[in-house]
């Protein structure tokens, strides 16, 4: 079907890749515009992130000050300050908390409309989430980082590859976080009410993702096990370690490569869970 005269981009047999890319881009733009309408919420959320940034920064700097002549978990004071303020800026970009849209649509039955669309639910929700992340990066990442730079001495990246690696790491973190949230929300297919799993995700992702404190403060064996066995450190800990230059260039690149592996695994898991859920809906007559 030729879509040259269509007003809405859809998948065409003539150029399926181009049409799919156009549709995916349109969904990203839709997600961006959706969150751009919540201007007051954006301002309020940014202010809250800055306030909590001061609290977290003073706590970690106090830890660094007590460790006289040492570098707690391998960070100096400037790296710890950068860790906190970049983390506050990334909190909304990665979007660890607050997303229950899939679970709500499953509970209300609106998911049936998503299953009738020509694009898979995982793909559609991922595109919208990338649009949300892009809006958050443009509006909520800079102010906390600027506030931190004004009041604290922040570490300045010294390696040319740090910033490009950080950008790739953030994109992968957004994808991994989306996949994890999708799987957690998808439990509503079986439980009908996913508030329990979502609560567990809210508690676990902040602690084991590196939001409240660097995971390097754990014993080395525990930190390595978390990195290898779970995707949670790839949410915040890895991007923050990359930008803070906590490790050498080779380990920096290795951590980002591990993120890429987890992104593939988590998206594959989300797709598998969705397909199993669709078969269950057919059995139920949905």
TrEMBL record:
Q: Which InterPro entries match?
A: ABC-2_transporter-like
Q: Supply the alphabetized keyword list.
A: Membrane, Transmembrane, Transmembrane helix
Q: Which residues cross the membrane?
A: 41-61, 81-99, 163-184, 196-215, 252-273
- Tell me the Pfam families matching this sequence: ABC2_membrane_6 (PF06182)
Kindly give the PANTHER family that the UniProt entry links to this protein: INTEGRAL MEMBRANE PROTEIN, SLR1174 PROTEIN-RELATED
Name listed for the protein in its UniProt record: ABC-2 type transport system permease protein
- Where does this protein come from, organism-wise? Actinoplanes philippinensis
